[in-house]
Specification:
The structure is a homodimer of 410-residue chains.
Chain A: E1 5-6, E2 15-19, H1 24-34, E3 38-43, H2 64-69, E4 74-77, H3 83-95, E5 98-101, H4 107-111, H5 115-121, E6 126-131, H6 146-153, H7 173-196, E7 200-205, H8 206-213, H9 215-224, E8 243-247, E9 256-260, H10 267-275, H11 290-295, H12 297-308, H13 313-322, E10 327-329, H14 333-338, H15 340-344, E11 348-351, E12 359-362, E13 367-368, E14 372-373, H16 385-393, H17 397-405
Parallel strand pairs in A: 1-14, 2-3, 2-5, 3-4, 5-6, 6-7
Antiparallel strand pairs in A: 8-9, 9-10, 11-12
Chain lengths: 410, 410
């Protein structure tokens, strides 16, 4: 397995000072860490990033949320509310290529680390911010969490049964989806900066980022002039059948297979009928064209389901897929966790942590020259305070001890 | 409005040769185009990228899908199956910094443009590929479309009602989500290449990319040891109430507001009761702690819904939000399309196209120094053939006419 791992060095030497918390910001900086950047989380000495979910004097019962978003980073604890702590933060900022934050609206300014404040000490810095809602939005002062950004960004409106209520997509796209578009822009700015040395202020709002992922529903709206609809497991706007989820044996909550015949390939329907032993229906006028099959979609779906119910989702995926018709089993986190091929290619890796039990988690999914980048443990709170202050600022032990005594660092 | 637009130049001068189609690849290269790269789509002269949905001798009835994924790019038509066309493609590749493709498994090799073929003419190129399933996966030979990658990557398993079937998230995360992680890695490779000149082969599988967006469900599985579950509009694993969607007036399919009280902030519940005129329930032992409220969640939800039903989702979002409790209206594409504040900050822009009617669409969501990057129309098929061959290769009109006569270009 370890043959498939390496340490990506694309961003070697790039210093990121990371004031982010929870998921939207940390997912962004973690992707940069996986590419080799030196990502230093600045955390408050008491409980750190609230994504750690530490509670005073109680054991950490929920570390995985933090692990999964903060691998390959360092942690420095700085008391930003003390003048010496703020001064130290500015000293670190002076050395950094990128600063990023996702505090609630107004908080970074109240700390004294607005873009103007930061630019004054480091004019070439790339200063990146995540907001919930964009400046100028009617909601610009509102707090946003993933669910709020997704509701207001449209994903709920296109998820769920056709006749049912809007539904939350089970992934935190408002957070990680935002982190990804911000990482892309930071990297663009870094690329140019190698030439110009110029700094910039980057801002993304979670609601705005969601629109980027909603582009297909917007293209549907372009065609119909109406709000894009929900379609359950179907895709509204694709007029073809059969398409969707079909129940499989033994009937557990995720025992389904997605089957998708193509409108552009009329042969798919005949091939599927042959596969399921219903050659008698080949050429049947009731089901001849995509339009005919859509008109009788419940009947068509039952023809397929009568066959899939007798098979496991893996078998159904295999034989339908082998016949050249796109098919996919619905896999849950437990099934995905058990598939060793993800580990074999380094896409899943186990975090070996000094305190918590080993934890298998998704690592960076893109492989370079056949290898994945190696996962290292997320930092303990303040684990790298002395190391980073020494490396970035050249302070010696005595100077660091003074900072500690003064309450500037944790 | 135009004051809020500029042309991002972060990737000015970076040449991308783009053999991608549909969404996963085009979403990646479009993000690079928005940052200022010179993205040249190489398309077959007959019908081009199948995402154009062109049909022989018929009008283009479905252009928006293509528009939305191919803004700010150029189109060159090359017949890759003719020896002279392939030679021309290699001449273009020799000039490029990045090449990217997302054909079906084996297709790029059959065309004669495998990584080895391409490296032979341009050793410093960054060669990026999107696969459906990773090499070594039991499904590595299967076709994958967005729905298949999402089913097999886990998103269906965590979306939908607790007791209902798995449900498709209404966004094409298997495509655009994959495009984003690949763009990040390409940019990392480009950054390093400024120093080393080194090329690399980058590969991402859509199923693997989905795991990256599934990290929160994987962290839940880490805690419970069981497959992450569906929760309708609730978030399984967050033990608190009230949280979720509440119906609003006038009762349309998207007339709901998401309200999320925090377990960490017991004051939220009392504040909400005051807001909805149910001070009588403050201190009521039935609803005192988060655990109490979860045990009586249907009752708690009805207390909130009795109030939200009398209000529009906008009003409910406004007053709940102003009381400091996170709240978000469920907005659909039509409502988002009508909100002019997206245009005011350049996050939505109108594509003015030479053939199709003007189309308002989401543009790149990250703003730099307060400005968004300017949208330009997606290219007509082959629109830039002569321009690019002249610019990249220095060929004159006579040479280009010969290429056309020989059937190498469209």
């Amino acid at each position: 397995m370890s043959d498939n791992l390496t340490d990506f060095t694309f961003l070697q030497g790039v210093k990121i000072i990371d004031f982010t918390q929870f998921e939207a910001g940390p997912s962004c900086t973690e992707s940069l860490a996986w590419l080799g950047a030196d990502v230093v989380k600045v955390e408050n000495p008491k409980l750190g990033d609230p994504g750690r979910r530490l509670r005073p004097d109680q054991p950490d019962i929920d570390p995985y949320y933090f692990h999964i978003l903060n691998a390959n980073k360092k942690s420095v604890t700085v008391n930003l509310k003390s003048p010496k702590g703020l001064e130290l933060a500015k000293d670190l900022i002076r050395q950094a290529d990128v600063m990023i934050e996702n505090f609630a609206p107004g908080a970074i300014e109240r700390l004294g680390l607005s873009y103007d404040d930061v630019k004054a000490v480091n004019p070439g810095i790339i200063y990146a911010q995540v907001k919930g809602f964009g400046e100028g939005s009617p909601f610009e002062k509102n707090l946003a969490f993933d669910m709020i950004a997704q509701a207001c960004g449209g994903t709920f409106s296109v998820t769920g049964d056709k006749d049912g209520p809007p539904t939350r997509p089970g992934i935190s796209l408002g957070d990680t989806g935002t982190g990804m578009v911000l990482a892309i822009t930071i990297l663009g700015a870094l690329y140019k900066r190698r030439e110009t040395g110029e700094g910039h202020q980057l801002q993304v709002a979670m609601q705005d980022a969601i629109l980027h992922y909603m582009r297909i529903p917007f293209s549907t709206q372009g065609l119909t002039g109406k709000a894009a609809e929900r379609g359950g497991s179907k895709v509204p706007g694709i007029v073809n059948a059969p398409m969707g989820l079909y129940p499989c044996a033994p009937g557990g909550p995720n025992d389904y297979v997605y089957v998708m015949t193509s409108r552009a390939n009329p042969d798919h329907w005949d091939r599927l009928l042959t596969l399921i032993g219903r050659e008698d229906l080949i050429g049947d006028e009731r089901y001849l064209t995509p339009a005919d099959r859509v008109a009788r979609e419940p009947e068509v779906d039952e023809i397929i389901a009568a066959w899939t119910r007798g098979r496991s989702k893996y078998d159904a995926m295999k034989v339908v897929g082998e016949s050249g018709i796109p098919a996919g089993a619905v896999l849950d986190t437990d099934e995905l966790n058990s598939d060793v091929t993800f580990e074999e290619r380094g896409v899943m890796q186990t975090m070996v942590h000094p305190v918590h039990r080993p934890f298998k988690m998704p690592a960076w999914p893109v492989r370079v020259d056949g290898k994945a980048t190696r996962l290292t443990a997320s930092p303990m709170l303040g684990e790298h305070t002395e190391e980073v202050i020494s490396d970035w600022l050249g302070l010696n032990n005595a100077a660091i001890a003074t900072l500690k005594r003064d309450g500037a660092v944790g």
